[in-house]
Each structure stands twice: as C-alpha cells, then as structure tokens.
TrEMBL record:
Catalytic activity, EC: 2.7.6.2
UniProt KW ATP-binding keyword: yes
Pfam families: TPK_B1_binding (PF04265), TPK_catalytic (PF04263)
SMART domains: TPK_B1_binding
Organismal lineage: Bacteria, Bacillati, Bacillota, Bacilli, Bacillales
Entry annotated with the keyword Signal: no
EC primary class: transferase
Name of the molecule in the record: Thiamine diphosphokinase
InterPro entries hit by this protein: Thi_PPkinase (IPR006282), Thiamin_PyroPKinase_B1-bd (IPR007373), TPK (IPR053149), TPK_B1-bd_sf (IPR036371), TPK_catalytic (IPR007371), TPK_catalytic_sf (IPR036759)
Boundaries of every Thiamin pyrophosphokinase thiamin-binding domain copy: 149-207
An example molecular function term from Gene Ontology annotations: thiamine diphosphokinase activity
Length: 213
C-alpha cells in the first residue's frame, strides 16, 4: 500500500469531527467499536478487527457483514489491545501515513499506550499521528517542519529519556541546542508565529502535540 494513507478508527472518544479527517482514497481500519462508528456513518471498513467486547451481538453481526475483511479474537487470551492489533496490521502494509482516530478517551491507560504506538511507527520509518477534536499528536526523531493550521499551541515533550540538540525556528519561545529530559515542562505551550515552523533535533524521540485550546 505504498502511497496510501491508513485511517484506524478505534473505540475511544469519537464525534462528527472525525469524519472530516477521512478522505475518499483512505484505507479504513475499524478497531472494535471504531468499526461500528465507520459503518454507522456510511463507510465500509477495509478490515475490522479486535475482540469486539464493547458491541452487542447485533452490532457485531452488522460489523461482520459490512466489512470487506473481518478478524475477531478471544478477549481473554490475547496479548495486544485492539488498537495495537490494528496498528500492527497497518504497519505491515507499509503505508505513507497512519492516522489514529478515537485513540484518546476516558481510559488514560489506553490513551497513553496509543501514544506509545506512534513511537513504534516512527522507529519503523512510517509517519503516524493521533487526531482528536482538539489535538494532533506526532512523534519525531529527526528535524521536521510543522504546519500551524488551525492549532493555537504546540508542546514538545521527550518520549525518550532525553532529546538533545533541539532548535526551534518560527516559534514564539525559541530554543537553541536545548536538551529536554523526561519530567521537564520547558517545551509546554509554545506558539508558532508563522504558517509553519522547523523543529531541529539531534538525538532522541520528541512528542509534538498541537492543540486548539
């Protein structure tokens, strides 16, 4: 699937905002209740997978009949979350980009685990992002240009023990050859002053969170 974008819709917080992030030629993956969301909004998942423990028997039947490919598993004897199963499948397709919708929600443990999936994608050379109604989250390990878009704030947090050589261009609060370590809040709530900015770094994994509020 080189040249393709894969959208994973999973079972966290979803809303009408998510529909605007789905493009006509995207490959759609429904993870557990995320598959039901796609079908209820007129989309046909290319693949639906998970243990489907958050849907009724009637909803499960609908997901099974409305998906091009359907894979279920036992909710007790599995080692991966539904979202990680979907993410691993997406990585194996070698797409250009993976977007996770519904990856954040009331379960902080699942939300944090899903953020960590971005690290796996980055380390395998696949661009990945988590998007919700107010945020876009990526992980970078090399110098990267960031578009401001509709986001008002941007925060930088280390996802490795430390990130070195951070230099910011086009930001309200500049950094030059800075080092961020886990537990520091120095990179929180910056602002892009131009339509795009540049984040340079030398080593480490940096979590980049763009927010609308």
């Amino acid at each position: 699937m080189n040249g393709k974008r894969i959208i994973i819709v999973t079972g966290g917080t979803l809303g009408d905002w998510a529909l605007g992030d789905i493009h006509e030629d995207d490959v759609l993956v429904g993870s557990d209740r995320g598959a039901l969301y796609l079908i209820q909004h007129g989309y046909t998942p290319h693949i639906s997978l998970g243990d489907f423990d958050s849907v009724t028997a009637e909803e499960l039947s609908l997901i099974r009949s409305s998906s091009l490919t359907f894979i279920d598993c036992d909710p007790v004897f599995k080692d991966l979350t539904d979202t990680e199963m979907a993410f691993n499948w997406a990585l194996a397709q070698q797409p250009d980009h993976i977007v996770l919708l519904g990856a954040l929600g009331t379960r902080f443990d699942h939300s944090l685990a899903n953020v960590h999936l971005l690290r796996k994608g980055t380390e395998q050379g696949v661009s990945c992002s988590i998007v919700d109604a107010n945020n876009q989250i990526i992980v970078i390990n090399q110098s990267t240009r960031i578009l401001r878009g509709s986001y008002t704030h941007i925060s930088l947090l280390p996802l490795s023990l430390e990130v070195t050589g951070i230099t910011l261009h086009g930001f309200q609060y500049p950094l030059h050859q800075a080092t961020l370590q886990i537990g520091q809040s120095l990179g929180i709530s910056n602002v892009l002053m131009e339509s795009e900015g540049l984040i340079e770094l030398q080593t480490g994994l940096l979590l980049v969170i763009q927010s609308k509020d």
